[in-house]
Every structure is written in C-alpha cells, then in structure tokens.
Request: fold
Amino acid sequence: MHLICSIYRSSKKDEMYLYVDKRKGLDAVPKALSEQFGTPIHVLDMLLRPERTLARVDMAKVRQALQTQGWFLQLPPPPDEDLYLAEGHNSAR
Reply:
C-alpha cells in the first residue's frame, strides 16, 4: 500500500520535521508535541513507496508510524563534536 504524507518543518527547532498522513493531516499529532514543534511550515507532500529511501530516517519506520499513529517526528541530527569543540566549547572527556 502506498502512503502519501505531508512533511512540515518546525518553526522552533532547526532540522526538525513532522511527517503526517496526508489524509489525516495534523489532527493526529498530540497537543503537547504540537506546542513543542511550533507552527508547522509545509515543506512538501510525498508518496512513500517501500522501495524509496530517505536521507536521515528509515522509510520503514516512517511508514509504520504513519500507519499506527498518523505521524512521525524526525529529530535534528546530533551536533558535530568537532565543530562544537572548534567553536570553543570544552570537552566533557
């Protein structure tokens, strides 16, 4: 079965994205998550085919989440430790 999802980026956190089943929209997203996410900014709609790959998340996990709860949250990647240290932060090592 093919799913069509809408992808939104967070207005509060860089590189945080919310995938929702396009048929259900944002109604399935819990209120607490919506408050933390901020105003959703629509990025695109996408057909999620099983054979398709995504850059930072596992397609199977996205599809599973959309089918069971109607949404999937993609968190920002962890900070680059080398860049973090280059900016003058102390290492906790």
The beta strands are 3-9, 17-21, 41-48, 71-74. The chain has a mean pLDDT of 86.
